[in-house]
Write a structure and sequence with these properties.
There is one protein chain. 38% of the residues lie in helices and 22% in strands. The protein has nine helices and 13 strands. It has a four-stranded antiparallel β-sheet with strand order 3-10-5-8. Strands 4-9-6-7 form a four-stranded antiparallel β-sheet. A hairpin with a 2-residue loop joins strand 12 and strand 13. The chain starts with 15 loop residues before the first strand and ends with a helix. The relative contact order is 0.13.
């Protein structure tokens, strides 16, 4: 990958692209007739990220050679607060959390990102630092793009820029709604909302997550999370075992959540219009 100051978009991909993540030379070819669900990066890895599938063939072709495939294990930190933003990540699977941390070490989740989006969002505005941490809450995979390539691509491709800006705006609405939810709604409602948002993004009823990590994300302590999870378990809405939560009854979980879940889902629906 070229240094940020040297990045130029290449509309005619070279014969070989160096994948620094795996330290091998990977042959590349110009994608032809790409359609949603059929796109791959230069390594042949399938793309399921909504934004990368929504842009034009020309835009994706220009980005394709710059998108190494990444394993994103649980608890991997994608961005530390006030550290330089060198890369953005387009998630293929899994879920990342945008986390606010205080100077004394307290923390709370303020937003989530799945395969509908990317992180860190500050890079779209040309910012090179963010006050928030971005961490993989549920492990998955994705594609990494340097901020230098992103800056150049947004200048060249208005549809790409519009898609990224739209997602950033929708995510900002999610953050605002989450802040109000964390302040005004009880923990059982907030836990239900969180489980629903997570299930939507990982596509599974089995969520591998601990009470300690849930407490961090919800801005509370482990005993409080255990009480809230226990209440949902007694109602046969979830089943909790060490290190995982299984959703047993989705409809009851939706009824248990506050109105913030449906509001956030409405925001997310704006992305596909």
């Amino acid at each position: 990958m070229a240094r940020t100051s040297e990045v130029k978009m290449n509309f005619h991909p070279p014969e070989a692209i160096v994948n620094k993540t795996k330290a091998v030379v990977v042959p590349d070819s110009e994608p032809k007739g790409l359609h949603p669900g059929e796109r791959t990066n230069f390594e042949g890895k399938a793309v399921t990220n909504t934004i990368l599938l929504s842009i034009s063939d020309e835009e994706f072709s220009a980005l394709r050679q710059h998108l190494p495939y990444m394993d994103l294990p649980q608890h991997l930190v994608l961005q530390e607060p006030k550290h330089k933003l060198d890369f953005v990540y387009f998630l293929n699977s899994g879920m990342a959390s945008r986390v606010f941390r205080t100077q004394n070490g307290d923390s709370v989740e303020v937003g989530v990102v799945g395969n509908e989006g990317f992180a860190p969002l500050a890079a779209v505005a040309g910012l090179r630092m963010s006050p928030h941490q971005v961490v993989m809450q549920i492990g998955g995979t994705g594609f990494r793009l340097s901020t230098g390539v992103l800056d150049t691509a947004m200048k060249e491709f208005p549809r790409l820029q519009a898609s990224l800006n739209r997602y950033a705006a929708v995510h900002g609405l999610q953050v605002a709604q989450t802040a109000g939810c964390n302040r005004l709604h009880d923990l059982e409602q907030r836990l239900s909302r969180w489980l629903l948002l997570t299930q939507d993004r990982v596509g599974s009823g089995l969520l591998r997550i601990t009470h300690d990590f849930l407490a961090t994300m919800l801005g509370t302590d482990r005993p409080s999370v255990s009480l809230a999870a226990g209440a949902l378990q007694r109602k046969r809405i979830i089943e909790y075992r060490h290190g995982s939560v299984r959703v047993l009854n989705r409809k009851k979980l939706e009824s248990s959540a506050c109105e913030c879940y449906s509001v956030i889902q409405q925001f997310n629906g704006e992305m596909v219009k």
